[in-house]
């Protein structure tokens, strides 16, 4: 917010004005990439046909739910359909565009890893977000009589809440095993110091801290490095749901020593509805024989 206020003061444009938005666009080094995406027309997304604005591009503010289609997506998808049609199973090994399916993982994780600040060996691309969360919790949520709680924010994305709730039931633990971080009365966002205080008070009973990188309801970006360090100092495993953070804010999962993280790709990475999800496991867990793993 301080940076935005500085631009406001220098430009003379009110923070909530269209003029300020245009000023920010002019300062954006990635602004030229807007032309790489298909922006729906007003009348295509439910606006009134025949109006002055009906044939204009809409103002799309829903990238947090589904990113716009890259213009190259149709061509690339058609190329894969052609490979399937013309080569069948041999497309696993021979591909006209040098994208053989059998080794798809290598180029995909090589591009994904820098987005989340990870090494390629720490990243996987598969499944859906919630499925990956369950796989991570199957390995990392190891409740004991003393340390059995999972800390999430009170307004976590509903599927995260349900996933944690079902994991707690799976382990036949009481409902108080879900510990909720709530804002102060009259406030909408969580203060970092309040989260740290909660971890300090409850840390001995917390098995896993799993918060959102960016809170879907408020847009709050959590201080991942500080929270991770504090929780691990209290003996907790730390995972992050990066559904609204990956491709949106800078991430350094390896350097921040995060234990695990999961994210989807159809929001800020524009992979399309049903796009495959990603996960991260820090390399220090690679040879950890104490972790239970679901293999296949």
Tags for this model:
about 10% strand, alpha/beta, single chain, globular, two-stranded antiparallel sheet, 7-stranded mixed beta sheet, about 300 residues, 8 helices
Number of helices: 8
What structural category arises from helix and sheet content? alpha/beta
Give the H and E element order: HHEEHHEHEHEHEHEEE
- N-to-C span: 46 Å
Average pLDDT for all residues: 94
> Unreliable runs, pLDDT <50, ≥5 residues?
none
User: Assembly type of the shown chains?
Assistant: single chain
In percent terms, what proportion of residues is strand?
5-15%
Question: How would you summarize what this structure contains?
Answer:
31% of the residues lie in helices and 12% in strands. It has helices spanning 2-11, 18-27, 73-87, 105-116, 129-140, 158-170, 192-202, 224-233; strands at 37-38, 69-70, 123-125, 149-153, 178-181, 206-212, 237-241, 260-263, 278-281.
Structure description:
The protein has about 300 residues and is an alpha/beta fold. It is built from eight helices and nine strands. The strands form two sheets. A seven-stranded mixed β-sheet has the order 3-9-8-7-6-4-5, with helices on both faces. A two-stranded antiparallel ribbon has the order 1-2. Strand 4 (about 150-155), helix 6 (about 160-170) and strand 5 form a beta-alpha-beta unit. Helix 5 (about 130-140) packs parallel to helix 6 (about 160-170) and helix 7 runs parallel beside helix 8 (about 225-235). It is globular, with a radius of gyration of 22 Å.
